Amino acid sequence: QVQLVESGGGLVQAGGSLRLSCAVSLKIVSINVMGWYRQAPGKQRELVARIISGGTTNYADSVKGRFTISTDNAKNTVYLQMNSLKPEDTAVYYCNVQKLTWPAFDYWGQGTQVTVSS
Length: 118
What we know:
With 118 residues, the protein is mostly beta strands. It is built from no helices and eleven strands. The strands form two sheets. Strands 2, 4, 5, 6, 9, 10 and 11 form a seven-stranded mixed sheet that branches. A four-stranded antiparallel sheet has the order 1-3-8-7, with no helix packed on it. The termini are far apart.
């Protein structure tokens, strides 16, 4: 069982910044895809950003140029740096890790609330 512990959420004014962290209970070099998703009230969960082994990153159009996903292999942690936050970024943010080869797995964190006030 892989455990993901998220932190860094909170309340921030529009234009502010937050950094989310996701500590993973195994060596992240063994993971193929690490990502951040978010779910706002009444909406479906959506991909915010992901990083694929090898370093390729993908971002939702709505966060390009404002959010950055990164990893620290020594700390087995995935980060999401969020700058120029907007009220529409308000959501619960979830960390996700996937291993695509056997033994494959797909795990989610418990979520951390991000609230951006106008």
